[in-house]
């Protein structure tokens, strides 16, 4: 069975299941595995050290799949920002036709992508930001509930409220993100008004995910309480896996720490080493509350086929029984 929605029609995939951009994780082998299973995967542009390296990663992905895939470009404030325009050009030059944007004011990037016939999906954490993205001219949005890994925004609205609130006002296709990792989440998101789902933490915990096996096993061992919210006091909230480093950051924030006081603890190079060496406490790493519903490490093909099969069973079986004849 294939679940056909406006989103699957827009991007030309079989199933409305997306593996969004994830720093250090969104690499060719994972993206291609998702694509080959009928979902939509995104290479994370800024995981690659240079625009030319991104071109090479896109080419590598094309050798692994002939199905549609995309590239994520996240635009965030930085003291020394990466050359976003050059990464954007690498995406366009490589013939990629689906892009996931995230971060601040991507209008110039959206305009340039649209000139080249690229479908743009923008990640949002609130209805107002979703409406702004719609006015900006994007083709679809991905709406992140408070449960999500990474940056959930500052409004603290969970998906059960955020998804239908957005569906009431946003006309373009919308996929739901945050707290989704199985068929129940997929069916719930569709019922709430989404046209598909985006999963990050769940795809981190697959055979093709390019992170250390010990971290995959840590995700399985963790429960729904195994996250921390850091940078709350700095109004730049980030949900990360709970570990010795995140607990230290939270404690320092309670004492009034500024970013400079925790800079070394949250350095990206330390977070990257978590995935490379498999040490849960080596640094900060992103994970969502969905950890509590992740109990295995399947292949992407097994995960996606299971979700679609079980979604069909829920829709045609359990839910159908509730309708009086």
UniProtKB/TrEMBL annotation:
EC number, UniProt record: 1.13.12.-
Keyword Flavoprotein annotated: yes
UniProt cross-references to SUPFAM superfamilies, sorted A to Z: Inosine monophosphate dehydrogenase (IMPDH) (SSF51412)
Name this protein carries in UniProt: NAD(P)H-dependent flavin oxidoreductase
Gene3D superfamilies found in the cross-reference section: Aldolase class I
First-tier enzyme category under EC: oxidoreductase
Alphabetical keyword list: Flavoprotein, FMN, Oxidoreductase
Lineage: Bacteria, Pseudomonadati, Pseudomonadota, Alphaproteobacteria, Caulobacterales
GO molecular function: oxidoreductase activity
């Amino acid at each position: 069975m294939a679940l056909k929605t406006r989103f699957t029609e827009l991007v030309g995939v079989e199933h409305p299941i997306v593996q969004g951009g994830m720093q250090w994780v969104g690499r060719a082998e994972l993206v291609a595995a998702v694509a080959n299973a009928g979902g939509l995967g995104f290479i994370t542009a800024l995981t690659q050290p240079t625009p030319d390296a991104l071109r090479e990663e896109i080419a590598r992905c094309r050798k692994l799949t002939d199905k549609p895939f995309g590239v994520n470009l996240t635009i965030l404030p930085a003291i020394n920002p990466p050359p976003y325009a050059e990464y954007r050009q690498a995406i366009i030059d490589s013939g990629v036709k689906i892009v996931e944007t995230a971060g601040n004011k991507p209008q110039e990037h959206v305009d340039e992508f649209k000139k080249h016939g690229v479908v743009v999906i923008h990640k949002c954490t609130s209805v107002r930001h979703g409406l702004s993205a719609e006015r900006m001219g994007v083709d679809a949005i991905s709406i992140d509930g408070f449960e999500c890994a990474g940056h959930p925004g500052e409004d603290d609205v969970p998906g059960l409220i955020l998804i239908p609130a957005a569906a009431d006002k946003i006309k373009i296709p919308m996929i739901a993100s945050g707290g989704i990792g199985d068929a129940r989440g997929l069916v719930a998101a569709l019922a709430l008004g989404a046209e598909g789902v985006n999963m990050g933490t769940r795809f981190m915990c697959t055979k093709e995910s390019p992170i250390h096996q010990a971290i995959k096993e840590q995700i399985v061992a963790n429960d729904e309480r195994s996250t921390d919210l850091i940078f709350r006091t700095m109004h730049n909230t980030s949900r990360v896996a709970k570990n010795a480093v995140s607990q230290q950051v939270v404690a320092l924030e309670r004492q009034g720490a500024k970013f400079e006081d925790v800079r070394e603890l949250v350095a990206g190079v330390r977070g990257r080493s978590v995935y490379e060496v498999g040490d849960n406490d080596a640094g900060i790493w992103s994970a969502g509350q969905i950890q509590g519903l992740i109990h295995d490490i399947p292949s992407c093909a097994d995960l996606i086929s299971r979700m679609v099969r079980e979604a069909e069973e829920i829709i045609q079986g359990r839910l159908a029984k509730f309708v009086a004849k």
